[in-house]
Design a protein that fits this description.
By secondary structure, the chain is an alpha/beta fold. Helices cover about 35% and strands about 20% of the residues. The strands form five sheets. The protein has a seven-stranded parallel β-sheet, with helices on both faces. Strands 7-6-8 form a three-stranded antiparallel β-sheet, with no helix packed on it. Strands 10-13 form a two-stranded parallel ribbon. The two termini are about 40 Å apart.
Length: about 325
């Protein structure tokens, strides 16, 4: 199978490329950055229609990983996110339409489309958490309240059927990518569109030099520099950390399964942020600085979000395989001489 892989020079994309080639597939990488030693890599932007059309010639499937990631600093970042994520996806889908493409289209989505995760109130059952109030956060009340009785809620696993509720610019653009892709699918029944909603991805090659790379990268960068990781709020925020090798394998399974719709790509084992920071510090060794819970909060952050992995397991056959402690130790081992 010949696969066009957008964003194939990036963190996740490079692992997807390696997995595809190991499976015997031919990979055409399209990325802004060059891929050394790859004779079939195209340097270009997914927002450029001519470049995309040329890269599509002769491909059997498309794996769309190119995106601008992270929360952004403030709303001034909106144009950049919309351009890279939504315009880029629209250009790619239009090129598929013009090429009369038939095959699998797998795209990278994100757990951020859910906003706050799924919650249960002891009195009112499953409810949608309202946005957290700045006054509560400033006072150290971090749990989202029940919108009916204002009592703290119990976090639960989020299934793909949960309502979407993006809470920042990046999240809004990821959901817009899904809407564009599924609108395309309705008009093109010969194209199977699958959106993989990644949870917190970590692993070898994870970028360390940008605040947009995710909390695992931020903590790792601090430890590598001899600084204590600073954990916001109280460190009890729940996330699902999934290894990039598992994410790459999920893409292979989705490209071959021919099953449309959205799928959570997660480990199924939620962890507190402080637990993850401790695991990284342990992997650095006994002399590493211990994580510090510094309180405070960041606008756009949600309290808890972790997924149900059941649909991906049942339909795609995807079950994450990399152990959390092993994966964190491997990540640290790659950074040390």
């Amino acid at each position: 199978m010949r696969v066009l892989l957008t964003g194939g020079a990036g963190f996740i994309g490079s692992h997807v490329a390696e997995a595809l080639r190991s499976a015997g597939d031919e990979v055409v990488v399209l990325d802004r950055d060059p891929v050394p030693g790859d004779s079939d890599a195209r340097v270009g932007d997914v927002t450029d229609a001519r470049t995309v059309a040329a890269a599509l010639v002769g491909v059997d499937a498309v794996c769309h990983q190119a995106a601008k990631v992270g929360l952004g600093v403030d709303f001034a970042d909106a144009v950049g996110y919309v351009t890279d994520n939504d315009l880029g996806t629209a250009v790619l889908l239009t090129a598929l339409h013009d090429a009369k493409f038939r095959g699998a289209f797998v795209m990278a989505s994100s757990m951020v489309v859910y906003g706050e995760g799924r919650y249960q109130c002891g009195e009112h059952g499953m409810v949608s958490a309202a946005p957290r109030r700045a006054t509560d956060l400033d006072a150290g009340r971090f749990e989202p309240p029940c919108p009916v009785c204002d009592r703290p809620l119990i976090p639960r696993r989020v299934p793909e059927t949960a309502p979407t509720d993006p809470r920042n610019v990046y999240a809004a653009t990821k959901l817009a990518q899904e809407h564009l892709a599924f609108a395309f699918a309705r008009e093109h029944p010969d194209v199977c569109v699958t959106a993989l909603r990644y949870h917190n991805v970590y692993g070898p090659g994870m970028p360390r030099d940008t605040p947009y790379a995710g909390v695992a990268a931020i903590f790792t960068d601090a430890l590598a520099s001899g600084r204590a990781p600073a954990v916001f709020e109280d460190g009890a925020q729940l996330r699902d950390f999934v290894h990039v090798a598992d994410v790459a394998r999920a893409n292979l399974l989705a490209l071959r399964a021919g099953q449309p719709g959205a799928f959570n790509v997660a480990s199924g084992q939620p962890r507190r942020l402080l637990e993850m920071a401790d695991a990284l510090a342990d992997a650095f060794g006994p002399d590493a600085p211990r994580p510090e819970v510094v309180g405070g909060w960041r606008g756009g952050d949600v309290r808890h979000v972790f997924a149900s992995p059941d649909r991906a397991a049942e339909i795609l056959g995807f079950i994450a395989g990399v152990d959390f402690t092993q994966g964190m130790a491997e990540l640290v081992g790659r950074l040390q001489p």
